[in-house]
Amino acid sequence: MLRKATEEENFKLDMLTKPADFLAPYLVPYENRALSYQESWAAYNACLYDLKTRFVGLLNNLQRQYEDLTVEDKSLNRFLNKFEGQFDNYTYEKLVHQVNTIALHKRMVQQRLTLTHEESQRKYEIVKSSLLKDNRLNLKHSYSEDYK
Questions:
Q1: Residue 18: which region, alpha, beta or left (left: phi > 0; alpha: psi -120 to 50)?
Q2: What domain range is 101 assigned to?
Q3: What's 33's DSSP letter?
Q4: Could you count the other beta carbons within 10 Å of the beta carbon of residue 27?
Q5: Buried-most residue among 33, 49, 81, 103 (CB within 10 A)?
Q6: 98-132: per-residue pLDDT in tens?
């Protein structure tokens, strides 16, 4: 049991230290055989397309959150300005606090949006260059293959 626990712990540590293998799911259909030039490019493009789609989805969700907060902020500000003199101090302070909280959330989402955009571009380029260097893909095209 101790040996098994040690092996499991070593496996977990190994998984944490190894970089993610983005290509592995795209190689499954080829059952550990050498890929042709076209198959390699298909796996390469599918991997990058899925990564890009994931990043675009994250960015779209953040953008949607930001737009929702903007609409809520404008609506609450219009309400406050229209009925400003009709609130007691406690209610008015509560509403102002709510406006400030929404503004803070907007700034946080905007910052996350900016950081996620920058990080996604950086990660995309890293994955792209690592795929081009990956030995499992046959991306070195020779012209003699075209005439076989």
A1: beta
A2: 2-143
A3: -
A4: 19
A5: 103
A6: 999 999 999 999 999 999 999 999 999 999 999 99
